[in-house]
Amino acid sequence: MVLALTASCVLIACENGPSPGELAARAETERLKNELQGRDSLIGEMALSFDDIEKNIMLMDQREKVLSETAEGELNMDKRKKMVRDLQLMNGLMLESRERIADLTKRLDKSKVETGGLRKKLKALDLMLASRDSSIASMKDELLARDFKIEQVNEQLTAIELEVAKQEAYIEQQTNEMNTAWYVVGTSKELEDQGVVTRTGGLIGIGKTAAVNGDVANDRFKEVDVRQTSRVPLGVKKAHLVTEHPKGSYSIVEEGDVLAYLEIKDPTAFWRLSKYMVVEVK
Q: Which CATH class is domain 23-176?
């Protein structure tokens, strides 16, 4: 009798389905699951957006440097076109980045995600953009003073034009990096004091061999474009290369009683082994 009654209760419970408490628990579990998925998705998307904005800022800095170099000296038509193109690219990068930050801020406002760290990152990026915005405004003023048109310097590219301009800039940047080299000229003491070279071996300070310090910072060197650098001035009595370069690729030219300059005869061969040149002089 008891067994039959128990079976009946179980059957009734099955027919009635989950209790209100069970349904509430299931709903809460599903809510938390969706909330966690939404949080992870938002954080992942924001991380990608942060990376994109930082890339835009780096590209703006690189184009600002190129634009400043292009602006030196007389401006022919090709130079003027390139300067306008670079500035229009910077306009587009700035607008795109600011729109991304505005969109991310709205999404954070609507979300239930703990946003302290994310908002701090957005604020930092916004300050970085404000600094670049000031630089762009200064460059526009300089161009307007050199008879550029206001509509040229303020023009915004379409989305497609912006992507094309980005790719062109990245290709130019990679090409420039491939053709960038660094050199330094100094006495033995100067090179050691600057941390450019170290000396090993020898006996009691005699016969030591100089070698380039692999950890030295690039700011100890002069940066050059290998396509435009054929001579390195010396003006000393004695000079020798600490770094290794094929013999036939260069010569040290003597004028009067001094070594006037190092002439690079074959840039491809000269820089093949290393993009760094260290010349020790006396």
A: mainly alpha
Give the integer Cα–Cα distance in Å for 262 and 255. Answer: 11
pLDDT digits (tens, 9 = 90+) for 53-94: 999 999 999 999 888 888 888 889 998 999 999 999 999 999
The bridge status of strand 276-281 relative to strand 258-264 is unpaired
Instruction: Note the helical H segments in the chain.
Output: 2-16, 20-70, 77-110, 116-145, 150-154, 159-178, 188-193, 267-270
The domain segmentation of the chain, as residue ranges, is: 23-176, 180-281
- pTM for the predicted model, two decimal places: 0.71
Q: Which residues contact 197 (CB under 8 A, 6 or more apart)?
A: 188, 191, 210, 211, 212, 213, 242, 278, 280
Find, among 41, 203, 158, the residue nearest to 107 by Cα.
41
In sequence order, the 6+-apart residues with CB closer than 8 A to the CB of 227 are 179, 267
The span from the CA of 92 to the CA of 99, in Å, is: 11
Q: Which of 275, 155, 143 is nearest to 221 (CA)?
A: 275
Distances (CA, A) of 11 to 2, 16, 18, 19, 20: 14, 9, 12, 14, 18
Residue type, 156: Q
The rounded radius of gyration (Å) of the Cα atoms in the chain is 32
pLDDT value, residue 42: 78
